[in-house]
Automatic annotation (TrEMBL):
GO terms for molecular function: hydrolase activity; nucleotide binding. Keywords: Chaperone, Hydrolase, Nucleotide-binding. It comes from Echinicola strongylocentroti. Zinc chaperone that directly transfers zinc cofactor to target proteins, thereby activating them. Zinc is transferred from the CXCC motif in the GTPase domain to the zinc binding site in target proteins in a process requiring GTP hydrolysis. Residues 228-307 form the CobW C-terminal domain. Residues 8-179 form the CobW/HypB/UreG nucleotide-binding domain. Belongs to the SIMIBI class G3E GTPase family. ZNG1 subfamily. Pfam families: cobW, CobW_C. One of its GO terms (cellular component) is cytoplasm. InterPro entries: CobW-likC_sf, CobW-like_C, CobW/HypB/UreG_nucleotide-bd, P-loop_NTPase, Zinc-reg_GTPase_activator. This is GTP-binding protein. Transmembrane segments: none annotated.
Length: 317
């Protein structure tokens, strides 16, 4: 099925971080493929649409709003139009406005009517090495953008000292330990690097325990579920309710768990309010554990939440 679905690459990052620069780089590398671009800018007039190096009839512009909220319907109809093209593209690149909440944006792709045609291959977060620390303190979306990204491009590296770059990488990894952080200049990333870190690739092996960030209370909590079996229905319902109520606090959940009655591990993912729990087909998946990234979370609270989904009668097979 995947071979027929359209690959989606979501580019997020704060204003001026280098999203269009990364996009143009990727378009150049994917030039042999059939690409479309969805541009979203906050103001009524589009600047970026004209800056993207792809034929103008391959660019959809969603302006005058933020793609994650007011433009949800418009995005949906653009995606429908793309899916119904006589020759649909192989790749769709979405450059979200610098203020977008990528969790809400990525949620659109969890909807069945959309995921039938599209598969999110990577959420790429672009960070300005010079301005990152300030934006993290001042703008809550900056933390969310990091939390949801698979690959974080630490752009404009040459503009800061080497030691500082190193400390930024550590700091970003503390916020999103699941991500790969890649320092570079002028958005210079390769498609090979991108392919190594596709959303569905199991990346959890490299996970390291993290603490709360000093200047922001975005943090990640690791839960070890080796010895635990969940009841699928119970887990789904407690997470659905929690994401509905605490969507502004829980940015992302990702990991693998045992489910009663199944020999396969299940991948649990949440983006925004959307949740998906599905059996894993690959053998290379590691031990079951989950990572929860969010703001103001406490380990005790999160452990209590998940414990409501346990099936205490079932044994790990
Ligand atoms: N010095 C330096 N400038 C860069 C680098 N990467 C991008 N720029 C410049 O930074 C400016 C902003 O880059 P864009 O790619 O337009 O950033 P953006 O995130 O798309 O910007 P918005 O769409 O306005 O949010 C441009 O003038 C780029 O040429 C870099 O590594 N070093």
């Amino acid at each position: 099925m995947d071979t027929k679905r359209i690959n989606v690459f979501i580019l997020t990052g704060f204003l001026g971080a280098g999203k269009t620069t990364v996009l143009n780089n990727l378009l150049q590398q994917y030039a042999r493929e059939n690409n479309m671009v969805i541009e979203n800018e906050f103001g009524a007039a589009s600047v970026d649409g004209g800056l993207v190096n792809v034929r103008q009839d391959r660019v959809f512009e969603l302006n005058n709003g933020c793609i994650c909220c007011s433009l949800g319907e418009e995005l949906y109809s653009v995606l429908r139009e793309i899916a119904q093209m006589p020759t649909p593209p192989e790749n769709v690149f979405i450059e979200a406005s610098g203020l977008a909440d990528p969790g809400a944006l990525a949620s659109v792709f969890v909807m069945e009517t959309v995921s039938e045609y599209f598969v999110v291959k990577s959420v790429i977060g672009i960070v300005d090495a010079v301005l990152f620390e300030d934006s993290l303190v001042e703008v809550p979306e900056a933390g969310r953008q990091l939390a949801i990204a698979d690959l974080i491009v630490l752009n404009k590296e040459a503009m800061v000292a080497k030691d500082y770059t190193h400390s930024l990488v550590q700091r970003i990894k503390r916020i999103n330990p699941l991500s790969v952080v890649y320092p570079t200049n002028y958005g210079n990333i390769s498609t090979e690097l991108l392919a190594q870190h596709f959303t569905e690739a199991p990346q959890l092996l490299t996970y390291k325990e993290t603490q709360s960030h000093e200047h922001s209370d975005v943090k990640s909590i690791l839960l070890d579920f080796k010895e635990v079996v969940f009841d699928l229905g119970r887990l789904r319902s407690i997470l659905t309710v929690s994401l509905f109520l605490h969507y502004h606090q829980i940015y992302r959940i990702k990991g693998y768990v045992h489910i009663n009655g199944s020999k396969r591990l299940h991948l649990v993912q949440s983006v925004g309010q959307q949740l998906s729990i599905s059996p894993v087909h690959r053998n290379e998946v590691q031990d079951p554990f989950l990572v929860v990234i969010g703001k103001g979370l406490t380990r005790k609270g999160i452990e209590k939440l998940f414990s409501k989904g346990f099936d205490h009668e079932a044994m790990v097979k």
